[in-house]
Amino acid sequence: xxxxxxxxxxxxxxxxxxxxxxxxxxxxxxxxxxxxxxxxxxxxxxxxxxxxxxxxxxxxxxxxxxxxxxxxxxxxxxxxxxxxxxxxxxxxxxxxxxxxxxxxxxxxxxxxxxxxxxxxxxxxxxxxxxxxxxxxxxxxxxxxxxxxxxxxxxxxxxxxxxxxxxxxxxxxxxxxxxxxxxxxxxxxxxxxxxxxxxxxxxxxxxxxxxxxxxxxxxxxxxxxxxxxxxxxxxxxxxxxxxxxxxxxxxxxxxxxxxxxxxxxxxxxxxxxxxxxxxxxxxxxxxxxxxxxxxxxxxxxxxxxxxxxxxxxxxxxxxxxxxxxxxxxxxxxxxxxxxxxxxxxxxxxxxxxxxxxxxxxxxxxxxxxxxxxxxxxxxxxxxxxxxxxxxxxxxxxxxxxxxxxxxxxxxxxxxxxxxxxxxxxxxxxxxxx
Length: 432
Fold this sequence. Notes:
The chain is of the alpha/beta class. The protein contains 15 helices and 15 strands.
């Protein structure tokens, strides 16, 4: 019989376990806690959508659409795409599910997204994002709230040191049109010196040349006209309200007038939280205002603003979270007490006590495993007669007079004492 070769994981994917899983989970749990503080509702959207959802919302000329999307035809001949980000799917749901009645709507989610790009440090082809959106609020205070939420998330994760909020304004439609015309004129004057990618962008997406990483483009981009010369009074007031709100909320920021979003539906605020601790790809959280996105999907003019961050990239910045160990390991003294042990561990878990029960081995072997797994205490089930089980407890991680021992004793006594009628006091459960 031929030897079966085990398939390897697909390039750009990863199996998350152990140390990194604890970091990953800590990011997701902290995000859930912070989004509840800001009263953002949790939303779930499909992992795949009609390709048109992303092609229209992200723009046909973007790298994501032209090079990175996982698109395929299903058996019915429909073109579908695995989501490369969350915003487009949430905007689609806002229209198709009638969520306009709840506007302004504050939504948050997290989960896997997919992009066919070159795998590198912190970037995968299947990766995970956290995402927060406010749809239906044209006021600058929506931008402030989202930025304050992101800032608090990074601080509660303990990774805010060395992370800088870079902020810019893209102005309103009138501002963008005037600035775009000036950029095109500037870049046309340097056409012979631009990279191939920038030449492609010049006709359809000239603002993207400003964030080109190609050394040939940098001197030209750095000398391009800035947006401030073209800001309307209304756009300047909007940006001033955002920066003033951030100052009032205690959120530190720095201006980056070269920070852009290339698509026409982006307006006003654009931002990135960046660090030098992840190499050249230093953005850990980014977003902006997209007041024209809903229209690109066939809906009415609807303001929106949001941000997203890669869970893996945030997790890479974390210190190792403290590992969680079981509070109690239940050990039956003899095989015939196994059912009593199963019942006891089930009752402890229902009472909110993290508990484990070894699957095999003698009582001595199970105690050795419990010590190795750093359990807090071992709860022994023994017979003191043919008809009655009794409990005794040994603490591994606490001093005999430590509060933790008294707390665990009380938890076990409250969970098990009345139901089984065990003599808890004689088994060592009185407070020391």
